[in-house]
UniProtKB/TrEMBL annotation:
Record's function text: Claudins function as major constituents of the tight junction complexes that regulate the permeability of epithelia.
Protein name stated in the entry: Claudin
Keyword Nucleus tagged: no
Gene Ontology molecular-function annotations: structural molecule activity
Gene for this chain: CLDN20
Taxonomic classification: Eukaryota, Metazoa, Chordata, Craniata, Vertebrata
Topology in membrane: Multi-pass membrane protein
Keywords carried by this UniProt record: Cell junction, Cell membrane, Membrane, Signal, Tight junction, Transmembrane, Transmembrane helix
């Protein structure tokens, strides 16, 4: 079973991953303008996110507009929305399970129950990491493809923004935390039975019963020998 120190490290990585995924989901800079062409004198940069588009002007004004239409959005943007929301939900569920599965906490049942809870948390973190990795890769591919397309004017070219990189890093944290928590799976050896407080006591009782039986048989044998001597 995984040590307490590694479990705490995995929990910290998972917490950073969930926070990063949440920040990336809400951030408006999934892609930023590489060159705004004719508007270069009035707008410093343009950004597009999963939920809103923002523009930063030289006058210091920062304006944003929400994406109200869902059906008008491209497929990769709709998929990114769904995947990131599900990733945040799965990661949050994993954090709750991980808090119960930590060996250093008193709640969550015995050690074996904690181990199974930790494995379930690891599965949630791996699932959340994959849900982060897939939309970030797809979104980056679409942005780079449009940037290299010669038919797209310079004013319509974008580069991957900071939210994409945060998503990749968060996915790495979540996957690493998930693997570490999955290592908490209890083995099938006899050592796991001694770690479980619910199985040690019956084994000890059986051992004591066998010892008492052997002592009784030994006493009877001595009495029989003494009777033959008389």
């Amino acid at each position: 079973m995984l040590s307490s120190a590694l479990q705490i490290l995995a929990f910290a990585l998972a917490l950073l991953g969930v926070l990063g995924a949440t920040v990336a989901t809400l951030s408006p800079n999934w892609k930023v303008s590489a060159d705004v062409g004719a508007n270069i004198m009035t707008a410093v940069s343009q950004m597009q996110g999963l939920w809103m588009d923002c523009t930063w002007y030289t006058t210091g004004v920062f304006s944003c507009s929400l994406k109200h239409s869902v059906l008008a959005l491209p497929a990769h943007l709709q998929a990114a929305r769904t995947s990131m929301v599900l990733s945040c939900m799965a990661g949050s569920l994993g954090l709750c399970l991980a808090a119960l599965g930590l060996k250093c906490t008193r709640w969550g049942g015995g050690r074996r129950a904690k181990a199974h809870t930790a494995v379930a948390a690891g599965g949630c973190f791996v699932f959340a990491g994959v849900l982060c990795l897939v939309p970030a890769s797809w979104f980056t591919s679409e942005v780079i493809t449009a940037f290299l397309d010669a038919s797209v004017p310079d004013s319509g070219k974008y580069e991957p923004g900071g939210a994409v990189y945060v998503t990749f890093i968060s996915a790495g944290f979540l996957l690493a935390a998930g693997v570490l928590f999955c290592m908490s799976c209890p083995g099938s050896g006899s050592s796991t039975h001694h770690d479980d407080g619910y199985t040690c006591q019956p084994l000890r009782k059986k051992k004591n019963a066998i010892t008492c039986t052997l002592q009784t048989l030994s006493a009877l044998r001595d009495q029989i020998h003494m009777s033959y001597e008389y």
